[in-house]
Amino acid sequence: MIPWETLDTAAVPGGRETLRLKRRGGEFSVMLGSNELMNSRLSGSEEALARLSIERLTSPAPRLLVGGLGLGFTLRAALPLLPPKAHVTVAELVPAVIAWARGPLAALHGDSLTDPRVSIVEADVGAVIRAQRSRWDAILLDVDNGPEGLSRASNDALYSASGLAAAHNALAPGGVLSVWSAGPDRSFTRRLRDTGLAVEEVSVRAGTTRRGARHVIWLASKA
Question: Which of 34, 76, 118, 175 is deepest in the core (most CB within 10 A)?
């Protein structure tokens, strides 16, 4: 078996663990400590995050905020589904992740980073959410392995009552907050509903086949 090779490491601002970009042949993995955050073989649920969110949009020029660039699967899946006047802002906290996307992971990202509808910003997605009201037709969060701060403790605020209230305020009427998770969380579902959002909880395959693990996507719409 081909051994894993560590290509680079990066600190997470405000975090205690180090990100590691690893490669085994044509397979890539991003690790945080002992946790695998993402793997290039498993893109199904990230692609579903984009598809399910966009299916719920009605604006001819939707504005999307994507929290976390990662391996680029969500962004790459979104672009063919969006109209020419759409705009996608990707907020990525870790500068090295953006550098990896333009370097060793460039083949995974394809042309998505140079699409004229896309802006990549080095920023905390929570700060971007709080900066404006009624701006986003969709906010897609894939920055942790679920609705708790894995990559850094301060990310807990994203999924708290106050963080969800900020997301509610940042959504345009009819907008949708979509959150990716490795598994279900009943208390998070309740917090979404308590914020006044109409909630759907969808189970999707982690990969692109009918077998294997399932992940969860919450789709919370603003009336």
Answer: 175
Query: Token pair of 29, please?
Result: 């993995």
Q: Give the pLDDT band (50/70/90) at residue 188.
A: very high
CA distances from 111 to 31, 106, 108, 149 (A): 25, 9, 9, 30
Tell whether pTM > 0.90: yes
Residue 214: name the closest of 27, 42, 34 by CA: 42
* Alpha carbon of residue 184 to chain centroid: 16
Strand pairing class (27-32; 35-39): antiparallel
Give the C-alpha separation, 217 to 219, whole Å.
6
What's the distance, CA 217 to chain centroid? 11
E-strand stretches of the chain: 5-11, 18-24, 27-32, 35-39, 63-67, 87-92, 118-122, 136-141, 171-181, 198-205, 214-221
Distance CA(110)–CA(18), nearest Å, equals: 26
